[in-house]
Every structure is written in structure tokens, then in C-alpha cells.
Amino acid sequence: MVRHAYHNVPMYRKKYDEAGVDIDSIRRASDIARLPILEKEELIEAFPHTCIADGYSPDDLTTAVTGGSSGKTVRIAYSEQTMRKRVVTAYRIYDMMMGGYRPEHVQTYVYTGKYPLDGLPDGSYRLVHIWTLDALQDAKRKLLDSRPHMLTLYPSRLEDIRRLLGPQDVRLLRQNLIVINVKSEMSTQAQRDAWAEFFGVPVLDEYGSEELAGTVAAQCPEKGYHIWEDIALVEVVDEEGRPLPDGETGDLVASCLYNWAMPIIRYRQGDLAALHPADHPCPCGRKFRQLKSFEGRRNSSFVLPSGRFLSSGYLLDVGYTRLMAYSDALNSWSLVQRAPDLVVFECLPGPAMTDVVRERIRHEISELLHHETRVEVEFVESLRVTNRGKRNQIISLVP
């Protein structure tokens, strides 16, 4: 892939020549650390004129759009062959999560865009799509009618739907449901465990990226966070791009191994993660390397006035534990750092919300933020979502 990119993609040829890279010396996976890192801004600037490989026409490729820095969007092009492989690798991940993905199984996919397939041509592996932005009551009805074996959706949408389900609804879902797959938004293991207890099935996380042509890592039923190393190389580096020791948290850098039309090599994804050692065992027996932790978007983290860094994973726990403790007083929430010394807990109040509860929540969040910043609890009529329907519950507005 490195040789293909160098000889066929102007962006890489220029980048590697300027860095003095001897392409012929890149012979094994570990050598990739000698290549310069590809930044998101470079990808935005290069599309489509200098990042599409020779022999491919943008007119013949599928283009996906995902969020970029400073409000800009990143565009990624895939060939038909890459799209087919993306679907097949997804089926393999479902097979791991479900302990067997069979032709008669139905997946209900609550998402902004439609999946490339509604199933195979013979009607097997049927997929039912529900739009993320559907009214909640409509989404609930469609979900119950679909009777899925696998439910795939954003974590925030799962929490919204969960609140509408009565005991009879849950019993109906449990007749078929084997697993719930959450993706595209951050969630914590504590959240997933609580949802698993409510629904009576495992709730597992999938980490994917449009830039990397789909899924990069996903949880097995034993909660091991396996990297799919035959389709993606994952590294964890410091801000200068130097590899970090196993177990240390840093920037996730990844390379896609099958998008030949628009190669993505050593791409800084914008997420924070840590790796287990290569020989770290998982009870499921799989040998793919595992993420030790996944902290989410760097730009969804807070930096307090003292310089203390709070990851989005920690902040999700701050908000989610308030939701669990005050479930009758809170319907949903977001934590927004509006200034270095001001954090606002934006929330949809429930029927049990009172001034006393509001002040208690404010005090508890202030304590969890180490009393370093002013905390306010603000009631809102709706929470912020992206134009793709995602809810980012941790938002930093600090440059």
C-alpha cells in the first residue's frame, strides 16, 4: 500500500520526498513508524486532485463525507471493490458480536444514512433501516415491529429509546434480540453495562471511521476491544508522532489496508486511545491486538484553568452518573465548556426536577471538575445535534 501510494498518489509522493523517505526501505509493518503522519487538514486540502490514485476517476467512486476540524468536512473516495469489502468486513464483525451471524437474522439499523445493502439478493441477512431523526415514538414502533436479532445505533439514540420502553416492550424485544451494537458516538463501559442489564443482552461498542473505510475495532462478547489488523494498522503516538509505549494514552494514528483508490496511511484520526501489549490475552481466544482504552475525540475534551486535562470518556461518566442518580429529574444532557473557567450542564429537565436537585447536580459536577471552574446547570428545550443526527454530549467551545 505504501509503494502504491508513493508511485500513484501525488500527495504522498510529495510528502514522502520532502521527508526524505526511502520507500524501498519500508518492508514490514513496524517500518511504517518512519513515515510522516497525515493530518486531517492535508486531506481536506488535497481532495480530490492530489489524493486520488492514478487509474481512478472521482466520477466513478463513491464519496463519503465526515466531520473535519474547524467546521470543515473531510471527503473520502471509495471504489466499488472497497465498498463491497467494507460490507463483508462488517458482516464478520456482526458474526463476532452475535456469536454467529446467520442468514435468517434481522438487523435493525438506526442511523442517519442507509446502509449499502438491505440484505443479500436472496433475502438473507435482512436489514431494517430507521432514520436517526425519526420522531421517537415512530422509531419505537418501527423497532418493535422489526423484531431484530441485532440492533445497531448511536448510544444517545439507544438511551432515548430505552426511556420509552415499558416492561412488555422489552420482553417483546428479548424474544429475538441477541446483541446491541453502539457506534459513532462515545459511550463508556459503565453505560454499556447498564444498558445490557436493562435489555438483557450484551451491548458492545464498535469504533469506525469513514476515512478508514469502516470499522477499525470492535468489542467481542467478552468485552475485548479487538483491532481488525488485517484491514487496519493502528498506532498510538505523542503529538510529535513518536510511538508511545503500550498502555500510554496518546493520539490514535491508523492506516487503511484496502482503499486503493484513496490510500489513507498514518492518518491522525483525532481520537485518544491506548494499546494493550500484543500478547495481551482475551477470553474469547481471538489474537487480534486490543485497545486498552478509547478516550474519544481530543476536541471533545476539556482543559481546566490549571492545565488539567479531562478526557471525553471521563466527562461522559460525569454526566451519565448524574443521569442515573437523578433519572426522574433528568431526561438528557450535554456538558459544554463555554470558556476556560465556565462549564454548563445543558439538560432537558424531567418531572422531578426542583431547585434543590438542580443545585445538588451543580455542586456534584463542580466537585468532579475539581472545583477549578464555574459550573452552571441550564435547562434547554433541545440538545445540540450535528446535521447527521449525532449528539455530542461533550462539547468544548474553547479554542
Keyword list:
399 residues; 27% strand; 10 helices; alpha/beta; single chain
- Span from first to last CA? 36 Å
Specify the helix fraction band. Answer: 25-40%
Task: Return the string of H and E elements.
Answer: HHHEEHEEHEHHEHEEEEEEEEEHEEHEE
Basic shape: globular
Secondary-structure blueprint:
Elements: H1 2-8, H2 10-18, H3 40-46, E1 62-67, E2 73-78, H4 80-98, E3 106-111, E4 126-131, H5 136-146, E5 150-153, H6 155-162, H7 167-174, E6 179-183, H8 189-199, E7 203-209, E8 214-219, E9 225-227, E10 232-237, E11 250-256, E12 267-275, E13 291-297, E14 302-303, E15 309-310, H9 312-325, E16 330-339, E17 342-349, H10 355-368, E18 374-379, E19 394-396
Parallel strand pairs: 3-4, 3-5, 5-6, 6-7, 16-19, 17-18
Antiparallel strand pairs: 1-2, 7-8, 8-9, 10-11, 11-12, 12-13, 14-15, 16-17
What does this structure look like?
It contains ten helices and 19 strands. The protein has 399 residues and is an alpha/beta fold. The protein has a seven-stranded mixed β-sheet with strand order 4-3-5-6-7-8-9, sandwiched between helices. A four-stranded antiparallel β-sheet has the order 10-11-12-13. It has a four-stranded mixed β-sheet with strand order 18-17-16-19. A hairpin with a 5-residue loop joins strand 8 and strand 9. The longest helix is centred in the first third of the chain and has 19 residues. The chain starts with a helix and ends with a strand. The mean pLDDT is 91.
